[in-house]
Design a protein that fits this description.
By secondary structure, the chain is α/β, with parallel strands linked by helices.
Length: 346
């Protein structure tokens, strides 16, 4: 049997721990007769499983006859891509020809005699959405790893119009917290503030332990050791599983740790470290060197005021580096990140 774990980002692995409740929430809301939300944003640190969760939702909805799913590339013209994908839907071309709607000016279809060309891409999309609405279809638009770029801003503004005109359109986006935060702060896109933002928390410890028990035929104690090493971080779950599978009967868990650390550093941690400020690093270094977790003591060690420390604590929380769930304390949210910080400062 091939290794059931993967080190590739964006690819749905053979073995993963599903986020059942959050996935169910989105699917049930999208399928409701009167959805309370038609936009959801999935966010979390790199490797937190945003793309995997999105893929799971997409695949479930694709199985339902009333759904049409469009996956768009955020680095391309999103309106043009959406128009092209809508135009390619079964019977759409036939309907447009019969209605004498000429989209050739927009690069869609062929020129029609005695028909006035449609020259506005937004208008073209509205005409096609209206046709799908007549057929009682719902349209999911999925965009992975969005950034605050011109294509995304223009698309989001148009999507807001489609919502106001009561087209059955739904939007599912993933992105790093800072990218989504910056997009929401655009003056013309305040409607995104009202969209639920699902921050992907660590995977359930019991579910991770059970998966390791089943795959490696381990007892609860041994599988628990592995689960603790991942801290519920989905990419770490994959890396540790991958390495244990490759080294079955050859190396102990302790012997695998150096390679585990190397993969985490090269695939994720080095990138995170390059994106934090000098003050962010100062806090992380003090935490790593001292082992201190109490906020009061960390403020004293870094010489920061309460207000200033709170700013950096929130930043590091948003980046997925710190866990702030315990009142008055902070800890590392990512597995063996403290060891990485210490090694980086030698």
């Amino acid at each position: 049997m091939n290794n059931p774990f993967t080190l590739s980002f964006g690819k749905k692995p053979l073995q993963y721990v599903a986020r059942i409740s959050q996935t169910k929430e989105i699917i049930e809301n999208f399928n409701a007769a009167y959805p309370s939300n038609q936009v959801y944003m999935l966010t979390g640190v790199r490797g937190s499983g945003k793309t995997v969760m999105m893929t799971g939702i997409i695949n479930e909805l694709k199985e339902m006859e009333e759904w049409v799913v469009m996956e768009l590339n955020p680095t391309r013209d999103l309106l043009q891509s959406l128009a092209a994908k809508l135009y390619s839907q079964p019977e759409m071309y036939t309907h447009l020809v019969q209605a004498k709607l000429d989209f050739s000016f927009l690069g869609l279809g062929v020129s029609l005699e005695n028909a006035t060309p449609i020259t506005d891409i937004e208008n073209a999309i509205q005409l096609m959405l209206a046709e799908l609405k007549k057929k009682q279809k719902r349209i999911l638009i999925a965009i992975d790893e969005i950034t605050n770029c011109e294509y995304v801003r223009v698309f989001a503004s148009s999507f807001q119009i489609f919502l106001r005109q009561e087209y059955p359109v739904f939007l599912l986006m993933t992105g790093l917290y800072d990218n989504i935060y910056n997009l929401q702060n655009e003056d013309a896109l305040t409607f995104l503030y009202r969209a639920p933002k699902i921050v992907l928390e660590p995977l359930n410890y019991t579910a991770v332990r059970k998966r390791y028990m089943d795959i490696f035929e381990l007892d609860m104690e041994k599988a628990g050791e592995m689960a603790k090493l991942t801290k519920g971080y989905p990419f770490a779950f994959q890396v540790l599983g991958y390495l244990c599978w490759e080294n079955k009967g050859k190396k102990s868990l302790e012997e695998i740790l150096p390679e585990y650390d190397q993969y985490l550093e090269e695939y994720v941690y080095s990138k995170i470290w390059s994106e934090v400020s000098a003050k962010d690093r100062e806090i992380l270094v003090v935490m790593s060197q001292s082992g201190e977790t109490r906020v009061k003591n960390l403020r004293e060690k870094t010489g920061m005021t309460s207000e200033l420390f709170s700013v950096y604590r929130e930043r590091l929380k948003r980046k997925g580096v710190l866990d702030t769930r315990t009142y008055g304390e902070v800890s590392f949210a990512l597995p063996r990140f403290s060891e990485f910080v210490l090694a980086s400062t030698i």
